[in-house]
Automatic annotation (TrEMBL):
InterPro entries: AB_hydrolase_1 (IPR000073), AB_hydrolase_fold (IPR029058), AB_hydrolase_sf (IPR050266), Epox_hydrolase-like (IPR000639), TAT_signal (IPR006311). Residues 76-206 form the AB hydrolase-1 domain. GO terms for cellular component: membrane. One of its GO terms (molecular function) is hydrolase activity. Residues 1-33 form the signal peptide. This is Alpha/beta hydrolase. Keywords: Hydrolase, Signal. Gene3D superfamilies: alpha/beta hydrolase. It comes from Paraburkholderia azotifigens.
Amino acid sequence: MQDTVNLRRRRLIGTAAAGLGLLELGLNNLAFAQTPKGTHAAKKAAHHTSFDAIEQIDAGLLNIGYVDTGPKDGQPVILLHGWPYDIYAFVDVAPILAAQGYRVIVPYLRGYGSTRFLSNETMRNGQQAAVAVDIIALMDALKIDQAIFGAFDWGARTACIIAALWPQRCKALVSVSGYLIGTPEANRKPLPPKAEFEWWYQFYFATERGEAGYTANRNDFNRLIWQLASPKWHFDDSTYQRTAASFANPDHVSIVIHNYRWRLGLAQGEAQYDDIEKRLAALPAISVPTITMEGDANGAPHPPAAAYAKMFTGKYQHRDVSGGIGHNLPQEAPRAFADAVMQVVRL
C-alpha cells in the first residue's frame, strides 16, 4: 500500500525532515523551552491495548460512553480526545494515573464510539460550546464538582473553555498546543499561504464533495491525518484500528463536518449556545494552574507557545516534549503527559 511506502520513506528521512519541518514551522527558540527545564524527553510507558470496561450514562443531550478507572474516591481527572482520535489516545495514560490514586474519566466526545444522542431530533452540532456543555453535563451526571483536565486537539479546546468560563469546575489544566478557543469571526481573517495549506482538510470539508468523500473514506482519511500530524510516530495497524472503530458512530461525519464549517462561518450553531459563544469571542483568560505541552514533531497546525502564554494568568508552565513526538502527544508520550497531569496542581 502507498501508506506503507510513505511510512518507510519517512523512516529513512526522519531526522533531516524533522529538523527542516521544525525550522519551517518557526518553532525553534520559541515558547518557554529556552532553558533545559522547558524540554522533556518522551519516556515510554507499558503498552496497553484496551480498557477494562466502557460505561454509559445519560448526560445532557447524550448517552455518553466513558471509561471510569482508579479509586472512586480519588482526585477526579478528565481526559479529552480530539479528531480524528478517541479514548485510546489515553490507553497508557489512564493506568499510570489510576495507579497513583486518581479517578480517571475518559469519555467519547459526541460523534465518537458508543456516545449517542438521546433524541433523533437534536441537531448534530459540532460547535465548540456544545462540546464543552456536554462535558459539564457529564460531570453533573457523575456528581463530580471539580476535576483536573488533560486534553489535546478538540479536547484541549473543550478543556480550555471549561477552565475559562467555569473555573470552579476545573482544578487544573494540561493542554496540548495551549489556548485553542476560537471564533468564526476571527477565523474569517486569512492566514499566510503556508498556514492555509496546512488546513487543507478544513476547506475540503466545506464542500459537498468533501462531506461525501469523508463519508465514503473516513477510515483511510483519518489514517492519513494521523500520518501527517505525527510523521515520526510509527503506529501499527492494530493501534489505528482500535480507534478507527469509533468513527463508525452514526453521527460522526455530521459532527465533524459541522465543526469545521461552523469554524469558518459556513454553518450556523444553535441559539442556546449564543451567550457562551459571545463570552468565548472575547477570548477569556484562563486563571487555573496550567501546563501546556507540545511535541517536537507535531505536523498538525498549531500556534507557537509564545503566542498564547499571556492567555494563562495563573500559575503556568510550558513543556516541549522531545523524541519525535507528534500531535497525539498523550498516546505517543504517555509518561510525559501523565507526569504533567500529576504535577500541574503543584506548580
